Amino acid sequence: MLNVLRKIVQDVTQEGDFAASVQRLAEHIQQALGTEVCSIYLTSNGSNGYVLAATQGLNAARIGEVLLAQDQGLVGLVGRRAEPLNLDDAPSHPNFYFVPEIGEEPFNSFLGVPILHQGRVLGVLVVQQREPRRFDEAEEAFLITLSAQLATSVAHAEAVGSAFVADDSTELIENGLFKGFAGAPGIGIGVGVVMHPIADLDSVPSRQAEDITTELMLLDRAVEAVRNDIRTLMRDLQASLPQEELALFDAYLHMLDDSALAGDIRAVVRQGQWAQGALRKVIRQHVSRFEVMDDPYLRERGTDVKDLGVRVLGYLQRIREKKTQFPPKAILVGEEVTPGMLAAIPVEQLHGVISVRGSGNSHVAILARAMGIPAVMGAVDLPAYDLEGVSIIVDGHYGEVYTRPSQQRVSENLSLLEQEQVFAEELNELKELPCVTQDGWRLQLWVNIGLTGDINRSLDRGAEGIGLFRTEVPFMSQDRFPTEVEQRALYREHMEAFEPRPVTMRTLDIGGDKSLSYFPIQEDNPFLGWRGIRVTLDHPEIFLVQVRAMLKANAGLLGDLRIMLPMISSLTELRRAKVLINQAYDEVIEEGVQVKRPQVGVLIEVPAAVYQARLLAKEADFVAVGSNDLTQYLLAVDRNNPRVAELYQEVHPAVITALREVARAVHAEEKPLGICGELAGTPAGAILLMAMGYHVLSMNATHLLRVKWVIRSIKRSDARRILARVMRMDAAEEVTVYLNQEMVRLGLSKAMPARLGSA
Ligand code: PEP
Ligand code: MG
Fold first, then answer.
1. Nearest to 275, CA basis, from 210, 194, 202, 197
2. Ligand 1 atom having least distance to the Cα of 566
3. Which residue in 753, 679, 147 sits closest to 396, CA to CA?
4. CATH number of the domain encompassing residue 84
5. Which DSSP category does 256 fall into?
6. Beta bridge mates, 42
7. DSSP class of 681
8. Protein residue whose Cα sits closest to atom 1 of ligand 1
9. What separation in angstroms does the CA of 693 have from each of 74, 190, 630, 705?
10. Is 326 inside a domain boundary?
11. Would you name the residues annotated as active-site residues?
12. What is the C-alpha separation between 310 and 319, in angstroms, rounded?
């Protein structure tokens, strides 16, 4: 029984019709517990209280109408205490509140459990019966279990805008304020453009069709395209597959007939749903019918149906994508914004990014920073799918989103934007000046790069080299591995532009949250899995092509080529990579291309490498720290998970100590030391790193002049004093407060973002 209920709970997220699934859930719970009543109350953001979202046993006509204030009745009490309430005589409880016409009179016993998500009460689950008895422990435990599962689904449904409370969404969006995490600094004012993941059926939103005939036509084209694919596949496999296996493809073709899936989808479109939403609904219905079957063979057929659905969706999205027009000031909104989505909107039209999932350390946030686009990540309460065409302000400094802002808020933000622009102009004057402290300590400021558009922005800000070329970024925007010639051309473009400055090329760093559509990696724990150097050492053919392309791209240029290896966790990996790099070098020389030997360095991102830093430094030509991953792995905090984003502390004493240990080890080997994590691009981080003796700080071009301004404004002796004090602190919170105070004391507050009054 629990299994069936779990499935229904999951459906709450996946069904387009949230209200109907919550009602189904109430009916099933009532049956499973054999009670007379089961009701679900959900918090209604619009009214700050609880709304009756579903009931089995009370007056269903009152669903959506009964509103309880936050502290009203037994439901309010359960919510306030955030713990279950089990009563045998509810009407005599002092908090009992009589709701007219709901039909509660005959029921004596009451069991209510809170629906809690991340410490927030989302609602209350209630069962009631006539017989005056307390519910037993097993019943209470059952309800708590269900409510915990339901909480995740409700939170998710709320976030994607399909929750019951979304009936209030217009009210919610009116002058709304949603909290997330700072993703990329800056303020963006524009209009919402909602995107959802390509070919992810479960996250397709319900949407009214703008034009039913067009939707039907799109559907026909997509279904026909899938049919063609299946026919081609059949032809290709004819020789190698037995006849009975090929019959399976015939079955697929039948499933797409008008008498089966396609007909059902068309019917839903005719009722007014757009083609993608109708597809999701019908596929979901068919899949759940298969999933409850006892026969394992038939159960598996559900997967086939889903697969067909994903294929049709793929075409629907591709057909639609080409047509998309964007507003001149677009704010990209999505449940999980991907690097590909960023690239879909012309950069001059992209004024902000908001993602329900992810955190400030996600790669999307890093890319947004590189592009200078304000971003808010992990805005978990945001009704993302209701924001199409809605006016929005993104405050990427403080991780805040304002929906349908008042005129006053817009003008306040416009004046902040102006202040930022004035400071930016002041910073512009520093472009040609060296990054040197007032007491003469010289620091190199390099850039992290990945998109072609970064070149001009970087040189324009006076970058002295490339400290990190994220080569996976161009790989991600293709539909196959780029060839050696293609890679060479792209790398050369950067090297020529930067000549004679040094260029650090990181070898392909895929895995984790960076995937290639044409090289899928499915793992339960991708950040601890097949990532970075682990993938490329297993695929020398990919590695060698890339290294050859790098070497050839550098031919005849004065700038140093530095090849940097990501995710190194042992000396063995460094040694194996060096063997391959030497092999690539020999091959290129044999081909008759005159190239210099590259410098080979390691990226320290894994705690193991911190403890082996001295040995690694001995065998490498240079060392750089990837503090984004190092922080993630040292603190065991997933850099993409908004739930633990507050624990991701770059100034945690453990991280600071590790950074200093690496510096000491690399200095002992007298090797160049750099850092290319996000910490390097923050004013306070740059001060600490300079004090530790990092020679090169590599950052997004966006931060470069601000960091230069800070370094030029202070003495290294001040920085060393600050570091010495920080090294004695034992909590990140203490470090943060102290660093902010010091910034103000040293007259550096201009480099900290202005705060808008949250009026
Ligand atoms: C890092 O981990 O700090 C780093 C520079 O690499 P990435 O952010 O691309 O993982
Ligand atoms: Mg990294």
1. 210
2. 6
3. 753
4. 3.30.450.40
5. T
6. 51, 123
7. G
8. 626
9. 62, 42, 18, 20
10. no
11. 363, 676
12. 14
| CATH code for position 587 | 3.20.20.60
Q: Which residues contact 450 (CB under 8 A, 6 or more apart)?
A: 367, 370, 469, 470, 471, 472, 473, 474
Using omega within 30 degrees of 0 as the cis cutoff, is the peptide bond preceding 242 cis?
A: no
Instruction: At 517, list the tokens.
Output: 């559509």
What are the residue ranges of helices labelled H in 441-503?
A: 454-460, 472-476, 484-498
Domain that holds residue 134: 2-167
For residue 46, is pLDDT > 70?
no
Residues 147 and 185 placed together within one structural domain of the fold: no
Say whether both 339 and 444 belong to one domain: no
- Are residue 301 and residue 189 in the same domain, yes or no? no
Cβ proximity of 265 and 285 under 8 Å: no
Supply the pTM of this predicted model.
Answer: 0.70
- Ligand 1 close to Cβ of residue 631 (< 6 A): no
Residue whose token pair is 């620091």? 443
Specify whether 306 is located in the same domain as 353.
Answer: no
SS3 content of the chain, % helix, strand, coil (to 5): 50, 15, 30
Q: How far apart are CA 98 and CA 111, in angstroms?
A: 16
Q: For residue range 371-405, what is the model confidence (pLDDT) as tens digits? A: 889 999 999 888 887 888 899 999 998 899 999 99
605 lines ligand 1 (CB under 6 A): yes
Tens digit of pLDDT for each residue in 179-236?
Answer: 888 899 899 999 999 887 666 787 777 788 889 999 999 999 999 988 888 888 778 6
Residue 202 domain flag: no
245 and 101 in a common domain: no
